Structures are given as structure tokens and as C-alpha cells.
């Protein structure tokens, strides 16, 4: 459950704030990017991310849960059919808030909140390890492949040589055994 906010509400009361955030979420899903005050953007982010998580599930119950917040069916349809597949592999962080300065009239701090729809690029474990490890395996891979090919050929040749040597030894052993038995019988 989300943590209740402290301080004054965005609107006149809790119902007004809930409707205001629902309208902001509808506009965000319709336009994929909106400009609003920093406070409203920060309050909208958890709501929008929770609704996107429901949309990723994609079942009827999730659609009905989203419809309790967003009353516009076209916005819900766009959320489920267009936005959810684009963020399917993303594990969170579906929105981005960028501060853009103050509004001219009342000097209110403004921000742009937008959906992050780019494909996920996983980060390397750490910059030092990946920088040190990246060139080393690349340089080692080429000789390693050659040695692998050589070793695969060498055991085959060794195995053939071993088999022929084993045949010669078994032939020598049988002739030796035959010679010994012939000497014993004399």
C-alpha cells in the first residue's frame, strides 16, 4: 500500500486530489508526456507506475482495477494495447521526471513527466570490472578457439595412434604368448 502523503493536498480535499491525479494519469497515457508542476509530477509517478504494472498483467481483473482509477476507456485501451507491450521487459521505472524551470506567472517549479518507452539496456555489473574484463576475454578468445580446434584434432589423431599402438601391442602380446606356449610344449 502506498505511503500516505504528508502536508497539504493538491486540491481542496482527498476526493479532489484523487480525481486530479486520475486526470493527470489519463493525460499521461494519452499523450505519453505532460508538463505540470513538480509536486503534481512527483505525486503522479507512483500512481502511474502502479497502473502500468497492472497493464503488464493484462488480464480482465487488472483492466477492471485500472478502470476504477481511469474512467476513459480509450486511455485504458491505449495503456493495455500500446504501452504495456513496450515496457514488458522493464522491471520498473516506467516514468521519467525532468525539471524545466519555473512558470512565468506564479514562479511555480515546473516539470515534464514522460513514459520511458525505450528498450531496456542492462547495465554491466560495475564500470571497473567491465572495462578491465572486456578487452581481456576478447584477446584471449581468438587463441582459445584455435587451441580448442587443435585439441579436438589432436585427441582424434592421438586416439588413432593409441588404437594402432594398442593393436600392435595386443598383436605382440599374442605372438609372445604363442611363442611362450610353443617353448613350454617343446
TrEMBL record:
Low complexity compositional bias, start-end: 129-141
Complex formation: Part of the 50S ribosomal subunit. Contacts protein L32.
Cross-referenced SUPFAM superfamilies: Prokaryotic ribosomal protein L17 (SSF64263)
Domain of life where this protein originates: Bacteria
The family this protein is said to belong to: Belongs to the bacterial ribosomal protein bL17 family.
Cellular component aspect of the GO annotation: cytosolic large ribosomal subunit
An annotated Gene Ontology molecular function: structural constituent of ribosome
InterPro entries with a match to the protein in the record: Ribosomal_bL17, Ribosomal_bL17_CS, Ribosomal_bL17_sf
UniProt key word Iron-sulfur: no
Protein name stated in the entry: Large ribosomal subunit protein bL17
Keyword Ribosomal protein: yes
Pfam families (alphabetical): Ribosomal_L17
PANTHER family: LARGE RIBOSOMAL SUBUNIT PROTEIN BL17M, RIBOSOMAL PROTEIN L17
Name of the gene this protein is made from: rplQ
Annotated region (Disordered), positions in chain: 123-186
Residue ranges of coiled coil: none
Record's compositionally biased regions (Acidic residues): 142-186
Keywords noted in UniProt: Ribonucleoprotein, Ribosomal protein
GO biological process: translation
